[in-house]
What we know:
four-stranded antiparallel beta sheet; about 15% strand; Four Helix Bundle (Hemerythrin (Met), subunit A); about 500 residues
Amino acid sequence: MSLRIYNTLTGKKEDFRPLREGKVGMYVCGVTVYDYCHVGHARAAAVFDTIYRYLKHRGYDVAYVRNFTDIDDKIINRAREENIAWDALAEKYIQAFYEDMGRLNIASPTIEPKATEYIQEMIAMITSLIGQGKAYALSGDVYYSVKTFKDYGQLSGKKIDDLLSGARVEVDERKRDPLDFALWKSSKPGEPSWDSPWGSGRPGWHIECSAMSQKLLGECFDIHGGGKDLVFPHHENEIAQSCGATGVAPVKYWVHNGFVNINKEKMSKSLGNFFTIRDILEKFHPETLRLFLLSSHYRSPIDFSDQNLEEAEKVLTRYYEFFADANKSMAEKNKNSDPAHPLIKNFEEAMDDDFNTAVALAHMNSELKHGNFALKNIKRPAKPDSEGIDPGRGETWKDIVENCVTTLRMTGEVLGLFLTDPQTFLDAQQRKKIEELKLDTKLIDTLIAERNTARASKDWSKADDKKRVLTSLGVILEDTPEGTLWKVK
């Protein structure tokens, strides 16, 4: 099966055929750096990071560009509020972005341009548009003339006549048409500015991505991504100004992720119903958030709640428990995954179908069950095929466990999961549960010691009493040759 991608521009899935064989150019709209990132930003980052990882897994040489918008009205206003320079504020939140994304296992793109590094490229593109009669200057501002682009609305499905009322357009009575949008803005006193043929000013939002993507990936590249909220007007305007400047369509496949919802409303800063990534990671392991975000197809909306995150953490814990138990049972580790293994085939089929991580994870969950079943039977002489196990998973129970570990780790790496040491993860989960339940660990150790003393003296009734108390506290015991181990249920 060949890779198929849903193209927002055509409204259907299409076979993926890059413009240059074996190479992929991908541009994803990044964040405006004036605040900490919220969970909606985390979803976009996780989705396109997974797409990036999978394309590389499939053997493509990927040039992945994700930008920072580091000049904007929001940045200027927040800098005034915090009484610091606008560029210092932008750098502060760029570093915060790196910290948050690092914790979520977001791989570094090939290049991460800042808008302010490409001002001259933006000025050159605007100059070209004015020269072709597709943009016009007004007292230091420059606007794109939407009606000069006959295909305006092709991405969003909107019609120009319908956009004249209720559209998200900039209000300026000087414009020739209400739909025309700013390419260059004259700066007010005290605002950051750059010299241009039209006077001192700064770029509009939309021109940034057109100029940077053209400079770094060429006039036409393979994939342009972003959140669904960017389809209109941002990406619609990108198409108009890029086509206007070059005469060619800038992007072959437009890819957009769905919203994160709270109470069926899109999570956003403007609505005030958002949680920062930092808020969430105070309560949940970073891979829990990532697993939750990938548990639905990227184009579908996803409902955010503590309950859904708790379910994701339970699933993640089951994987790490398997990896930890397998480590104790196997001498051989780090085998290469078998490309013919059933999980690899099923995983790739799911991901080839428009990066369907939800189905891919379902196959991984099924494989985890096989692995746990094999782990329980690892010392049995019976052959796995006598239990109806697919012979492609291994000839012995030990083979199945080893193959399960390697294939789950390989597929997990594509999804940015299972990158923590298993025992480190499980120890952290135990500490979290102990804190949540406010358990007295000294009391638990004392009860275990008293139980063991009673067992040693064959006072089984007292030993059972101590165990019942421990069980009521949510403590599970495991008696081993090295002593009694305990964990929270």
